[in-house]
């Protein structure tokens, strides 16, 4: 199974004010409280994009969705305490799709998975991570719904603000970072798909992931969705922006199709890092080489400069070609052992964290 998003796999195809003080206890020592100004700079007040020093954690924004973003955040939360996830909101399958259609809300599933990834390794974090990821199994209407999806949507209805709702869930979980939607409205992905020499159009994240043809390009509906303002601000203030791993066409590239977000990604002084997948994804990137992933990224954002391309040593058959593709984006290739030792196409959080920390400290 690849680093794909919650709503893109075959398994899911079937499927303003602070408000009142909650009754549950929040642990002040680990609760996430949004900060600004010098606090967001780790107390240094230094400019965005400045080289990281050993006494200040880097401000990192991670882009993506689903299992790929979960892998990235699981590593990054041990590297920095100034971490923001900017998450795709195009899922139309499973529990997320049902809630989206019934209530008109943002699909919560990828946001939930990001919050779960930011939970700590202590008893509180492990327990709440399992709770929000738990899915009901029944013969009734609750079947397949994730507890975290229902919790997030309940807070959205009570507070009337998606960002505040996510912040409150983050506080409950003791999340080691902040989770934000990439857009303020639900999105649909439209893909141009080639099959036997014929180009057709496929609409919807699940349909794009399950298409028998090869995805050539994507667009969004609506074409000019409002970006989440807090996400734009986080990108502009970041030291590093991390793309991937994850479903290339349905989790990574959509961020570049939201105009305000794309503008911020081009204008930020942050350095940009691309973490490549460990295996092609059936449907979306069948038979893609690592360098083809970069070529597709360049096609969708030809003016976007990349500083680092991170690839696992064991999946690169042609280092020279990948190095050339990285250079075409303005970056350099870093190869390291970041895959899980069991042979599955999953990133190992500790290995990935170690390499990312060395990159942020400019030791690689």
Total beta strand runs: 10
Number of domain units = 2
Radius of gyration, in angstroms, nearest whole number: 19 Å
Q: Which H/E pattern describes the elements?
A: EHEHHHHHEEEHEHEHHEHEHEH
Number of helices: 13
Runs in which pLDDT lies below 50 for 5 or more consecutive residues are: 1-47
**SSE-based structural type:** alpha/beta
Give the C-level CATH assignment of the largest domain: Alpha Beta
Please tell me the CATH architecture of the largest domain by its name. Answer: 3-Layer(aba) Sandwich
What's the N-to-C terminus distance?
A: 29 Å
- Name of the CATH superfamily of the largest domain: CofD-like domains
Shape: globular
Word description of this protein:
The chain is of the alpha/beta class and 364 residues long. It folds into two domains: 169 residues, CofD-like domains (Rossmann fold, 3-Layer(aba) Sandwich); 92 residues, no CATH class. The chain is built from 13 helices and ten strands. Strands 3-2-1-7-8-9-10 form a seven-stranded parallel beta sheet, sandwiched between helices. A three-stranded antiparallel beta sheet has the order 5-4-6. Helix 12 links the parallel strand 9 and strand 10. Helix 3 runs antiparallel to helix 4, helix 5 crosses helix 6 and helix 11 runs parallel beside helix 12. The chain is globular, with a radius of gyration of 19 Å. Pfam families: CofD. Belongs to the gluconeogenesis factor family. One of its GO terms (molecular function) is LPPG:FO 2-phospho-L-lactate transferase activity.
């Amino acid at each position: 199974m690849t680093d794909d998003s919650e709503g893109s796999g075959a398994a899911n195809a079937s499927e303003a004010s602070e408000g009142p003080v909650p009754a549950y206890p929040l642990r002040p020592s680990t609760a996430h409280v949004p900060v600004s100004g010098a606090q967001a700079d780790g107390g240094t007040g230094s400019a965005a994009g400045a080289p990281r020093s050993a006494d200040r954690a880097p401000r990192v924004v991670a882009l993506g969705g689903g299992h790929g973003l979960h892998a990235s955040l699981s590593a990054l939360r041990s590297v920095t305490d100034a971490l923001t996830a900017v998450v795709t909101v195009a899922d139309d399958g499973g529990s997320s799709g049902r809630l989206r259609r019934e209530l008109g809300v943002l699909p919560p599933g990828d946001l939930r998975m990001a919050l779960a990834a930011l939970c700590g390794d202590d008893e509180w974090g492990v327990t709440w991570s399992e709770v929000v990821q738990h899915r009901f199994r029944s013969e009734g209407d609750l079947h397949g719904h994730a507890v975290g999806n229902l919790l997030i949507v309940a807070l959205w209805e009570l507070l009337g603000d998606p960002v505040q709702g996510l912040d409150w869930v983050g506080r409950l979980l003791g999340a080691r970072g902040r989770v934000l939607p990439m857009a303020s409205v639900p999105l649909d992905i439209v893909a141009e798909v080639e099959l036997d020499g014929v180009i057709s159009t496929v609409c919807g994240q699940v349909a794009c992931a399950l298409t028998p043809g090869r995805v050539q390009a994507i667009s969004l509906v609506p074409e000019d969705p409002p970006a989440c303002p807090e996400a734009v601000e986080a990108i502009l203030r970041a030291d590093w922006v991390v793309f991937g791993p994850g479903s290339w066409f349905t989790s990574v590239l959509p961020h570049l199709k939201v105009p305000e977000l794309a503008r911020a990604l081009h204008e930020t002084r942050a350095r940009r890092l691309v973490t490549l997948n460990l295996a092609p994804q059936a449907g979306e990137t069948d038979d893609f080489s690592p360098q083809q992933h970069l070529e597709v990224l360049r096609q969708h954002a030809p003016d976007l400069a990349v500083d680092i391309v991170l690839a696992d040593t064991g999946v690169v058959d042609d280092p020279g070609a990948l190095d050339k593709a990285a250079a075409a984006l303005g970056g350099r290739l870093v190869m390291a052992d970041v895959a899980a030792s069991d042979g599955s196409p999953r990133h190992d959080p500790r290995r990935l964290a170690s390499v990312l920390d060395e990159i942020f400290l400019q030791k690689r």
